[in-house]
Amino acid sequence: MKILVLYYSRHGTIREMARLIARGIEEVNGAEAVIRTVPSISTVCEATEDSIPADGDPYASLEDLASCDGLALGSPTHFGNMASPLKYFLDQTVPLWLEGALVGKPAMPFTATASLHGGQETTLISCMLPLLHHGMVICGLPYTNPELNTTSSGGTPYGPSRHAGPRGENPTSPEERQLCLAAGRRLAELALKLGCA
Questions:
Q1: Contacts of range 82-88, beta carbons closer than 8 Å, 24 or more positions apart
Q2: Is 107 helix (H, G, I), strand (E, B) or coil?
C-alpha cells in the first residue's frame, strides 16, 4: 500500500513535516510512503523546470496521484491559503477527476505558518476543497492525540501544522513532531481499513 506525501516547500519546513509524516506512515505494517514535491511557478509566465529537480524529492506526476492509496498534502500558508505551486499542480488533475481516480481514498492536509495565528486552519481547509471534489475521504487528527490539548505552537484537528517563525527559526516542538507521526499512522491505517490497497 502506497501513501503519497505530496508537498510544496520553499524554505524546508513543510519538507521536514513531510518526512515526519512519511516516518509515521512506514510505522504501519504494509504501508510505504512515497514523497513527492511540486516545482515553483513563475509570476510572469509559465516557466519550465527540468523534470528532475537539482536536489530534494522528485516532482509529482498525475500517475503518482492516481496510483496512491492515500494522500498527505502539505503546503505552507500564504495569506491563509494554500501556496500557488501546489494549487497549480492540483488544477491539472481534471483528468483524474473525470475518471474518479481518487474517489474513496483517504487524505489529510498539513501546513506551517510564520506566525502563530497565521491562518493554519484556513490553509488546511483550502487544501481540503479540491480533495473533496475528487471524492477523497478527509481525515483529521482526533483529540485522542494528547498533544492537541498540550501544544502551544502548531497542531490542529484539521491536520498537523507548525509554527515555524518568520524566518523558519523555531525548532519543531515535541507536540508538532508527535502529531506529524500520528498523522502518518492514521492515514495509513485508514487506507488499510478502507481497502484502498
A1: 82/123, 82/126, 82/127, 83/8, 83/10, 84/41, 85/8, 85/38, 85/39, 85/40, 85/41, 86/6, 86/7, 86/8, 86/38, 86/127, 88/38, 88/41
A2: strand
pLDDT in tens, 96-118: 999 999 999 999 999 999 998 89
φ, ψ of residue 95 to 5 degrees: the values are -60, -35
pLDDT in tens, 58-97: 999 999 999 999 999 999 999 999 999 999 999 999 999 9
Prediction pTM value? 0.94
Q: Which residue has the cell 483529540?
A: 143
Identify the three-state secondary structure at position 40.
coil
How are beta strands 70-78 and 106-113 bridged, if at all? parallel
Q: How many CB atoms lie within 10 A of CB 138?
A: 16
